[in-house]
Sequence to fold (576 residues):
Amino acid sequence: MASSEVVQYNTPWRRAISIGIGVFLFVYLLWTTLPFFIMFVSSFKDLLEAFKLPAVGHWAGVVVFFDFTPTIKHYLNLFVDLSFSTYLINSIIASAGSAVISITFGAMCAYSLSRFEFRGKKDLFFWIISTRMAPVVAVMVPLYAIFRGAGLVGTLPGLILAYTTFNLPFAVWILKGFFDNVPYAIEEAQMCDGGTRYQAFWSILPLIAPGMGAFMVLCILFAWNDFLFASIIGSGGAKTLPVATRELVQPQNIQWGSIMAAGVVTTIPMMFLGFLIRRYLITGLTMGAVRE
Amino acid sequence: MLPAIAVLACITIYPFLWLIWMSLHKVDIGGAGDVWNNFKNWSRLANDAKFKQGWWLLLKYSAMCMFAEVGLGILLAVILNRSRWEKLLVTIFLMPMMMAPIVAGLVWYYLYNSTFGWYHWLLQSAGILGEKTILADTGTAMLGIVIVDVWQWTPLIILIVLAGLKRVPSDQLEANMVDGAGEIRNFFQITLPNLYPFLLIAILLRFMDNFRFIDAILVLTGGGPADSTKILPTYLFDVSFKFFKLGRGAAIAVTLLIVTIVLGLILVKVFENPASKINNQEVA
Fold:
């Protein structure tokens, strides 16, 4: 590191660059956070206040953004007048349910894929990942027909199953990577002592438990944020938050305050969960291709 | 483990076969039964201008997104990699990814609005936009949806590139420095080539997601104005769920699926390639 210290003289050129970098970071920071900020603040504004905008080119007029009396009437509207509490519970049940199922079966699947050799394993593998990548719009029609045939349209179990179609392949794929990293010797020792394959499986489970937890959270996130499945498979009896939020957009009367409030309700839990599993995020989002 | 695979098979392979079946028939949702129609769905695709335009717009949309996201992503990752506040800033930058795409679409729709949208006001005040409305003008609507995608998904590229940067072998960098390379030459000669596999994965993933997620576009423009943002998945959505031409929709869906499968094969190849060193667990 000594060499780099030698190079670090403080020329004006270097200082200009570092100031430029600072400004750039600040602008990007604003660009990232501003929509969140506006969404959050607007959800506490009365309709007329939310529509106030300074004249074009009148930069000092930005202060009207902060000129309002906070109101929680949009939140009351969502949870008292509309049944957003039901949609919230639907969202929680559907996403958590599919996450638990996906990770449970996914772990077993991944274990067998990781430990046993059999013919066609590569093909099976590719098929599993391809189901995760298939465009939802493309497979929606036949899926809808299947679900309708099974009487699952508009029910929470149906929605859980629908989310499992993309969460399970994800879980299998990503957990296999974790099992691959656990040395086989642990199970061998267990089985030499007379344990069954099943006991061996349980003995190594604690080793990948943190990963399983993190990916369960990621499964919840994928399912929670989904719109297309929920709007078509869940239509009717199993409305989730994103669908309910979308329905606030009426051709004649767009209830912007309520939409922003619903956006806040939908986004905040996921942001919290995202920060919680920050360390596993990149592995999960790149299907295990990149690790931190 | 077998039941899981069996269930998965039912809800994945079966729809695919059904799609092919549907694409070869005239499908009637009234329930009159499917009628074989001699590849009519397919032959009509060949003359369907909107279908071709859909592919073209999908490619254009993806290319624009990718160009901006990868450029910004690399730049920010390089800066963040040296920053004292890397952890904090990355955490803040990640926020857009957690937002449901539909909510992101709605929020941006609000920001773009011509009577009360703050971003509309900002752009007009800065003299960039003139009298146009971003999403209602055929010239700027595409840019409008690209911006939302860039806002939401640049963080993913930052994360991937950051992970890649941490794995650039420092001995190569030092050797090159000894040879008299400055920081900029070092970046282009050593760092960038080491990042290629990471960038490839990032681009493939984003490309496939552009196929998969149309939530934000449905809210923002719905494919309009004058079909200027009707990328193929949105067109497919219209054909199947607005006009209920399920047979034609299926034919379009099959073309989409085939391209996705090819992309997936490439991704798996990259993933399994030991030379790419991506799976390397030992971080220097």
Q: What stands out?
A: The two ends of chain A are 23 Å apart (CA to CA).
